[in-house]
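COMPLEX REQUEST
Ligand: magnesium ion
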Amino acid sequence: MRMSRYFLPVLKETPSEAQIVSHRYMLRAGMIKQSSAGIYSWLPLGYKVLKKIENIVHEEQSRAGHLPMLMPTIQSADLWRESGRYEAFGDEMLRIKDRHDRDMLFTPTAEELITDIFRSHVNSYKDLPLTMYQIQWKFRDEVRPRFGVMRGREFYMKDGYNFDLTKEDALHAYNRHLVSYLRTYERMGLQAIPMRADSGAMGGDNTHEFLVLAETGESEVFYDSAVTDLTFGDREIDYDNVEQCAGVMEEFTTKYARTDETHDEALFNEVPEERRKVARGIEVGQIFYFGTKYSEAMKATVQGPDGKPVPVHMGSHGIGVSRLLGAIIEASHDDKGIIWPEGVTPFHCGIVNLKQGDEEADGACEALYKSLTALGLEPLYDDRNERAGGKFATMDLIGLPWRITVGPRGLKNGVVELTSRRTGESEEMPPEDAVKKIA
Ligand code: ATP
Ligand code: MG
Ligand code: MG
Ligand code: MG
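STATUS: Structure written out below.
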């Protein structure tokens, strides 16, 4: 992409309404624009990162054998009356009437609709297990939408649902989700710690939230610092292997890590004092096993091996796709701007031309652009006729992992400058070497 053709409405001033760094940088880098409280337009740069994150979520879900699908955002109230949640959801639910005066709503989550789909089409235990998921916009009329995309009213969420014959099978699905979530967050350069949580309105007693530690997080968390040493890494996983998934589950959830709702002071005190941490965290996902709560209320049964109908065991699993942009920035930035982890960066590298219009500099930039693109990388070439200082500031703000600076003086010696956004270190080298280093 060439900057001269891109839409990147960078703000010089820090917007006064933004209280936390991720919100400030997302506005300043022209990633989002608020349209009304907690509702945002995603401008090209923000949209690009959103799609990268979404793509990682899809890849990891499909690796785990879960099926992508899509349900409508506007739903009829009827199913929600059946489950009892039409009342229970209260003011967080956005209620709408259509022209025939029918009660509709904008989906805050989708247990009811998926359960209806399931009961309409699945009759036998032989069709289990089944896990389907979607990545779709949700709406919750939050009392206090704030912190930008972190607590929006409209937000993008992955929600998955498993249907199993037995509790044992459903717990395997739970573990599979835990593993796939660990992989998902790590690919985004994030450490998200599974913590025992409260199931709230969802019901059921097995649930973990995934928290990214950050001072600006809205949850208070208590944990054994040993949990921060755990990483999933690139180990092989067979998602059909019940013991292997259970092993990962145990490894990542045995040490003390809880949100304030489930915090137990006595248990916490058993952790060696120097490892006891109290901090704040951002909830970027949650997994639930809730048994037969919805299947019983909505009569989602299958014929068991003995021919008798049994309600299916279910769980649901969410990832805050749009919230993740905020969480990643909270975890990875400095005072100049965002520092994108490689896995989600909107462009792989920036090219800054110090002297636009200089034949040699222009030619070298074009050549770099071509060779990076040929390698399947996406460069962002600042080809505007602007001061170098402004170009650098923009590149630092939008946080691409690498910057190649090209100027007539360096070119005389056959070199360009390669700068790492994360370390700030610069090195001169021939253009081909810079390309090699990025690829
Ligand atoms: P919170 O405690 O932050 O209100 P939640 O527990 O109500 O979140 P879930 O029902 O567990 O949310 O939804 C799954 C995920 O969707 C959450 O883990 C979070 O990452 C994301 N999410 C929930 N509410 C919002 C929101 N208002 N804006 C952005 N993301 C959200
Ligand atoms: Mg909530
Ligand atoms: Mg929560
Ligand atoms: Mg939650």
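REMARKS: The two ends are 17 Å apart (CA to CA). Residues 167-187 form the longest helix (21 residues).
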